[in-house]
Each structure stands twice: as C-alpha cells, then as structure tokens.
Design goal:
The chain is mainly alpha-helical. 66% of the residues lie in helices and 5% in strands.
C-alpha cells in the first residue's frame, strides 16, 4: 500500500473529526444565542409557557384559547426541558425551548453513525471493492454526520423550536430499519426480524403522535417509490409489470406486521388524545390540518411545484454532491434495489410534499438524514468504480458538469445577494423581489449597521468558497475517495462558518428590527380607549403581540380567517402592510403604523 494513500486516509480522518467538533460547537452556540423567531418558533414556546403555568398537560392553549392544530407531544418535551432547566418559574427560557430539538437532532446523527459503522463494510464489499482499497476512506462512523452538515438548512434548524427534528428522529429509525432489510434482500420477499418489526412500529407510531399521518404515509410511499425506481434501474432492457407486482407484494408481506402494529399503537394514542382533549382535536388536527392543508395553502404558505427542488439545491451543496455522485461510474454489481432505498425515501418525500398546496421549508426535514446516508453510499460506490477502472472513472462526464453548474448557480446567487446587501445595494435587490412582503421586510431593517454588513460580506465569501468545494468534489468523486471526504468536510465547515457569523453578527439585528415594531404597536393598541379592548391580529400569529397587549383578549387569525365574524366582536386590528385590505374595510380607520405593521380601529358600534 502506498504511503501517500495511508497519509490521505489519516488526514481525512483528522479533518473529519475537527469538522464534527465544529458542528457540535455551532449547534450549541445556536441553542444558546439564536432567539425564537416570531410567527413560528415563538408559538411553541408560548404554548409550553401556558401549559407549564396552568398545569393542564392535555389542554394546549394559545392566549387562553384551545389549540388543536398539533398533538401535545412535542410541547411536552419543551415543558419537561423547562422543568429541568428553569425550575418552577412560569417562563420557558431560550435554552429550554431549543434543547429538545438539539437532543433529537443529535440522536438522529448518532443513529446514522451507528448504521454506517455496521453496514459501511457491507456496502464496500457489495459494490465489488474491498475494505483495504480506496473505500477504506469512507468507512468511518463520523462520515454520515459530516455529510449531514453539508446541508445548510437542516444545520441551521437543528436547534429550532419546531417539532420537525423530533419527527425526523422517529422517521429515521424507520428509514434505517427498512434500508437494512432491503440491503440484505435477495429475492422478492423482505424479512424483518421481530425486533425490527416492533421497533419500526413504535417509531412510526411515535412519528404519528408528533405530527400525524405522515409518520406512516412516508414509509409506505417510499417503499412503493423504491420498487418503481428499482424496476426502472433493472438490468433488464424491458422490465415487466408482473415481476414488479411480485416484488411489491413481497415487500408488503414483509412489512405488513410492522405497519399493522403502528396503526394499532397510533390508534390507541389518538383515542387517548380524543378522551383527554375532546372531539375538537380530531376535527382540527386529523381533518383540517391534514386534508385542508393539502388542498389549500393555509396562512399564505404557498409556492410553485418546484418550490422544494429549488430549496434542495439552494440549501447547501449536499444535494449537488449526491446528484454528482449518482452520475459517476457504471452500473455496480450491487443493484439499486439493495442500496438505493435512502434515495427513494428522499424522492418520495419531495414529490409528496410538492403536491401539497401548503408549502413550508421545514417539511423537507425527514429527507435530510436520507440524503446524508445516500451521499455516504454513493461515494462508496464511486470509489469502487475507481478501483476497477481508474482511467475511465476519472473522466468528468457532461452530466456531472451539468449538475455542478446547477450547484454553482445556487451558491453564486446566495453569494451575490449577501455581497450586495453588504455593499449597500439593498435598493437594487428590492427591485427584483416580486412580493410586497419581501420588499417591505427588507426596507424595515434598513439601514444595515456596519457590523451586519461585515458579517454579510464574510458570509458571501463562504458561499463563494462553496463553489470551489463543489468543483473539487466533481473532479475527484471517481478518483480519490480520501480527497472527496476532505471536500465534504470542508463544505460542512463552511456551513458552520456561515451559521456562526449569522448568529453573532446578523440574526440578532434582524430579529430585533422585526420584533420592535410588534412591541411598539402592541403598546399603542393597549392605550386605545375602546369599550371591550379586544384585539385581532391578521396573518401574524405573534406571541410578542400577546405578551405586550394588556387591555383584553387577543384573537389571532390567518389571511383567510373569519375576519367578518371577528370584526363583529373586536375593535382593534393589527395587520402587516401586505394584508392592508383588512384596514380598508368599511368602518375601520388607520390609527398607527410602524415599519411593516398597521394598527386600525373600528368606528362602528357593534351589538
């Protein structure tokens, strides 16, 4: 064995360890420092505070009104964390609210590491290589977490006060169990051990207890998607339909007991919730939050059919790396049916959520562990091809070049935008924004202080360096496994740099600028002398408003909420500028404005 290869493996392992330590430090910094953002994160923190203060653990309330949009499972973890860290205090600290997501994100990465420690060698041998060949550089259990770090979006959200990291933890258990079962599959039938069957069932039931039916729908559509892709990737020139249904029945027979147990467990959980929370929980959560959210964009969260595809490529080079690795090498000895389930899982989720009318970035969360695992498998596959045919594998095909161009375009856009903001070209960026909401928010944070501009400039440099990392990855993917993993580690390190700079220099300023108008307008509303003193917010859902308005009840509704009915009972309305139609209704006049917010009151007397 060449001394240079040994040194390459050693340096890769050292770099990986350093980057993993940097990722841990970055996550801890985000947990301690990043404030809970209004409209989404602060909602769960407020729910936990009201639950902790009332000691009613099955009656979630927001501003004293019942909240049935989600099960209480995730909120319980925040309350438990606050009991541990904050003691009997009625408030929930920043760290206590972020600790559950940090814990579940960490557990998810530990699961990926344990899986790769056990099955990495199996993939190396299955692809026709050897643990003593170039694949050795990809056998470290530290690689899946580092591969996960190449995606900026999930790294930024690893400590978010959102239930998606908890949901992803449970779904990752199912992902790994099915991946292992399909990897050892030799015929049409898939066999799960008794332990795997029960564990997968408990995990799916846990996922359903956190966010609903996605916990069982995603594994089901992932299995179907995997069989379709396996048929398309089959060595046969014309795969027949009959063998496809035969294989699909084999998978269904192998996982039927696990899915059946999951439904039984979830049914028991939902029955318990129903008995404790009443019929309104099932009506709001199981019907409206599942079916209405899928057919109509709730709270203005809409987007194009390609919303998530754009997000995947813009959220860090992880997806670019995976796509470039797919385009590398020839057909391997190990068929797609045995190694490609993580890819099928990701594809199934992206297609499913793309068809939903309501679109939010955090819906992609369950795909990111599968993307990280896919990257590990595909680099192993590429290095096996390199050991078989070095000259052929070293050539860079047009497909890899095209994929690299997409990644470079995404990173370049981010770099140019942040650089323009750093240089004071905000007005020109505003002209390219197609929505009033985006332009208004941009103008409300002007002028940017020097510290923020310097931070944005450094972030622009980091995005530019991501372009270099992508080019190096595409060039080395089929030639040098050790160099590839150093490139992956470098991309993860750059994401950490972006998050650290944003947390220290950028995010606190933007949060303060967006929160201060909420505080001021709420105080102004509190000083209005109106009978009743009730307040309605439209398209805001802001706990900051609730905390700073002390004249009466606060009712918060969405863009398409029952405003007419609410107006018959309320006298004050706070709405953002992009929803100013609420203040132009008959009988309402504008009384105050601050940045992106409007305050209007009723001149009519309602009985």
């Amino acid at each position: 064995m060449e001394l240079s290869k040994i040194r390459g493996w050693s340096s890769s392992r050292l770099v990986t360890s350093i980057v993993l330590a940097l990722m841990v430090g970055t996550s801890i910094l985000l947990a301690f420092r990043t404030p809970t953002f209004d409209f989404d994160e602060a909602l769960y923190r407020r729910l936990a505070e009201e639950m902790k203060a009332s000691h009613q653990y099955f009656a979630m309330t927001w501003d004293g009104r019942p909240f049935y949009e989600k099960p209480p499972t995730y909120v319980w973890t925040i309350v438990a964390s606050s009991r541990l860290l904050d003691g009997p205090s009625p408030s929930v600290s920043l760290l206590a609210s972020r600790l559950p997501s940090l814990l579940f994100s960490t557990l998810t990465l530990i699961l990926l590491s344990l899986f790769w420690h056990r099955y990495g060698r199996v993939y190396a041998v299955g692809f026709g290589g050897s643990v003593h060949a170039p694949q050795r550089a990809g056998l470290s259990a530290l690689l899946p977490p580092v591969a996960f770090g190449t995606a900026l979006f999930p790294m930024a959200q690893a400590t978010s006060v959102l239930l998606d990291p908890m949901l992803t933890f449970f779904l990752t258990i199912v992902l790994l169990i099915l991946t292992a079962a399909l990897q050892r599959r030799t015929g049409a039938e898939v066999r799960l051990t008794a332990k795997e069957t029960v564990t997968a069932a408990i995990a799916m039931a846990g996922a359903m207890a956190v966010k609903g039916l996605l916990g069982i729908i995603l594994p089901a559509i992932a299995i179907i998607t995997h069989e379709i892709l396996s048929m398309l990737c089959s060595a046969e020139a014309r795969p027949r339909v009959r063998p496809f249904w035969h294989r699909l029945r084999g998978v269904a027979a192998g996982v039927a007991r696990s899915f059946g147990l999951a439904l039984i467990f979830a049914g028991a959980i939902y029955t318990f919730f129903y008995r404790m929370m009443g019929r309104a929980f099932l009506t709001e959560f199981l019907i409206r939050q599942h079916f209405v959210r899928g057919t109509r964009p709730l709270q203005g969260h809409s987007g194009s059919l390609f919303y998530y595809v754009i997000l995947l490529f813009a959220a860090g080079p992880a997806v670019v790396f995976v796509c470039a690795a797919i385009a590398t090498g020839r057909r391997s000895r190990l068929p797609f049916a045995q190694w490609g389930f993580p890819l099928s899982w990701s594809a199934a989720l992206i297609v499913f959520i793309s068809l939903l009318a309501t679109k939010l970035p955090n819906y992609t969360w369950p795909a990111w562990p599968a993307i990280a695992l896919s990257l590990c498998i595909l680099v192993m596959r590429a290095s096996a091809h390199a050991s078989e045919d070095q000259n052929r594998s070293a050539r860079i095909g047009w497909l890899r070049v095209s994929i690299a161009a997409i990644g470079i375009a995404a990173a370049s856009t981010l770099s140019i935008v942040t650089l323009a903001l750093s240089c004071g070209l905000d007005i020109y960026i505003g002209r390219f924004m197609t929505t009033l909401r985006a332009r208004t928010i941009l103008m409300s944070v002007e002028p940017l202080p020097l510290q923020v501009r310097i931070g944005l400039g450094l972030i622009a440099i980091a995005f530019a360096l991501q372009i270099v990392e992508q080019c190096v990855f595409v060039r080395n993917i089929a030639a040098d496994a050790a160099a590839v993993w150093r490139t992956v580690a470098g991309a993860a390190a750059l994401n950490c740099v972006v998050l650290v700079i944003a947390s220290l220099a950028v995010v606190p300023y933007f949060d303060r600028q967006l929160r201060e108008p909420l505080v001021r307008v709420s105080h102004v509303a509190s000083g209005q002398h109106l009978i009743g003193g009730d307040l309605t917010t439209i398209a805001l859902f802001s706990p900051t408003v609730s905390s700073n308005y002390d004249r009466g009840p606060v009712r918060q509704i969405g863009v398409h909420g029952p405003f007419t009915q609410a107006a018959a009972l309320q006298h004050l309305v706070i709405t953002p500028v992009w929803e100013s139609a609420a203040c132009r209704r008959r009988g309402f006049v504008l009384t105050d404005a601050d940045a992106y917010l409007l305050l209007c009151k009723s001149e009519l007397r309602f009985k």
